[in-house]
Amino acid sequence: MTLSAAPPVPLFGSDYFQDPYPVFAWLRDHSPVHAFPFPVGGVRTWLVTRYDDVRAVLADPRFSSEGGTWGNPEFKAAGLVSGAGSVLEKAVTVVDPPAHTRLRRLAMSTFTPRRIAQWRQTVERVVSSVLDACAARGEFDVMDDYAGPVSSTVMGEILGLRIERHRELVDALAQAFPSDAARMDRVPEGFARICGYAEELVALKRRSPADDLTSALIQARQDGEQLTEEELVAMVAAMILAGSDTVRAFVGNAVLALLDHPDQARLLRERPELEADALEELLRYEGALTTALFRVTTEELEFRGTVLPAGAPVIAALLSANRDPRQFPDPDRLDLTRGGPRHVGFGHGLHNCLGAALARLEGQLAVPALLRRFPALTLAVPRGELRYIENWAMRRLVRLPVRAAGEGAA
Amino acid sequence: MTARHVDARAVVRVDARLCRGTGLCQAMSPALFRLTRAGYAIPVDGELYDDDTVRLARSVADCCPMGAVEVLPGDDADATGPESAGT
Ligand code: HEM
Ligand code: SF4
């Protein structure tokens, strides 16, 4: 690899956040294992952008999820260890086996077919009541008035959160995943609040168990083992953090993709049997996570001709892998009938999305339902005014204002 | 699955209709699972001969997000019951 090369616009700069795809295309061709200074602390970080390489990193145990254990001193000093100093330090997302296996088995055991069937009814009910509220508005913001309420209400109901807490949860999530880069300083408080709700929820469900996911996690048992108090709180908080704003982001991206491709939107309306394939294609085209969480090397190793020192932070660019022409012909075209190889929108390997069944359910119900309810749906602002949040891991629109009755309506 | 050996403790299978090719099984145990070129999982061998391997296969089955991995008692274990299973 030549060293002098730099991508067309700087990584993790404003232009990149608005449209990362040209940067990804350049990196895949010219610098597939790309070293750059991470914006926080200037820590030397490697970004991997090709489909095969992204899968290889995420499947290789030498790329650890435990930044707190394996990260180099600069990585730790820059505060890049996720969840450091909170219960989330030991969350399923950021531990390696054997701890990961134990947490993942216990959590996964609660995602039973019976429970998932119940969730379908919950999601359908929530979607339809939020759609009513949107219809009453006429003009609304898909992010704040549709995808946001759907994703957080579903999560709250599934976990058994008291209804008075729902509004606060939306607020705490907005703090944890700000739309405005200037409000990054309030992120830790958002995370802390969510851990607080998780703790409260676990205590409540210990006293009065009910038919919800939190109670199921409390009761989960595998080979005589159960989740400890701390693990439970971390698991519930991780579900809230990993399973609300991601769904919100994805629904927004999917709706925009369909507004941008009216022929595909028509196809989806006319052929409901395409819904499952359509969902996978929408996840490939623009899923919610631009990248996986940090991996760090457990030893010095050579990866595709690049020597990575021990403790090196590595970022796998999922949305780049999903647009890699080596894997997906004509990758920038949305084609709901595409089928074919698997996308990495839910990650790959050990840490692949634990909530994928719920995410698919929400996506598959919420996206087509909006199109069917409002067949004439159009953008309520010029396309060029749409902005994405400036977050390196999440790809989410700030706002997506739409008009239910279409162009001509007042 | 044909029983090549009579003493397999258990048999591991991947349900191709459920598998989404997440690669979790292969990452947990490349000795037991691999992904095909099309990106879906298949067992490397399928027959498991010792308790540790059976336990590992069960963990993988528990972690698979699609419930696509099945661990079934082997023919021999089935016929003679678990107590008689010596090593
Ligand atoms: C469309 C929505 C979603 C997308 C695009 C998504 C994507 C992802 C991705 C890419 C990862 C892997 C991260 C990594 O490897 O570093 C992941 C992990 C995870 N997701 Fe999701 N997710 C979604 C919805 C959900 C939902 C609804 C839940 C909750 C029930 C959830 C819970 C989790 C958890 C707990 C993990 C960590 C798994 C582990 O470490 O073993 N996600 N998700
Ligand atoms: S973990 Fe399950 S879904 Fe993933 S590749 Fe293996 S069998 Fe398929």
Automatic annotation (TrEMBL), chain A:
It comes from the Bacteria. Transmembrane segments: none annotated. One of its GO terms (molecular function) is iron ion binding. The keyword Oxidoreductase applies. InterPro entries: Cyt_P450, Cyt_P450_B, Cyt_P450_CS, Cyt_P450_sf. The keyword Zinc does not apply. Keywords: Heme, Iron, Metal-binding, Monooxygenase, Oxidoreductase. Gene3D superfamilies: Cytochrome P450 (1.10.630.10). Belongs to the cytochrome P450 family. This is Cytochrome P450 hydroxylase. It comes from Streptomyces echinoruber. The lineage of its organism: Bacteria, Bacillati, Actinomycetota, Actinomycetes, Kitasatosporales.
Automatic annotation (TrEMBL), chain B:
Pfam families: Fer4_15. This is Ferredoxin. The lineage of its organism: Bacteria, Bacillati, Actinomycetota, Actinomycetes, Kitasatosporales.
